[in-house]
Amino acid sequence: MGLPPKLLGTDEYEVLHTRTHAKAMVLPAAALVLVGAGVGAGAALVPGEWRPAGQLGIALLGLLLALWWTVLPLLRWRTTTYTLTNRRLVTRSGIVSKTSKDLPLSRVNDVSSQRSLSDRLLGCGTLNVQTASEAGVIALVDVPEVEHVHQTMTQLLFGADDESRPAHA
Predict the structure, then answer these.
(1) How much is the pTM?
(2) Is 91 inside a domain boundary?
């Protein structure tokens, strides 16, 4: 699900909508497995005189760690999105407090992408958007199919035939 229609301007339409690559969830998934193993081992090693209170304490500690190391990163990942419309680039993030940044395409000077070896293997990369403002370069990290996003944004900026844009005010 992209931007709600009420957030789109007149004659504005969504071209592309994505979130950061799922590789962001690898460490939280590993943490969940380790927490589960730790809770199981810890509950089994609790001395008999401390049962069941000790086991309950370990389970509660495991639950807190799972929330902190797994659920929060999942919610951050699910709520961080990149949306490209025919007029602007919109980044949105936040679980409770939402942050939305709009970058009009008319202020973009250049778009480039970077892909490390692991990014190429996973099909993602970093999209660098150079702006005409003080912000300089905005880096969107772990963008899935970054080459496609780069090409789409370049076509919106410079036209399908890569002619230079007319100067803007």
Answers:
(1) 0.77
(2) no
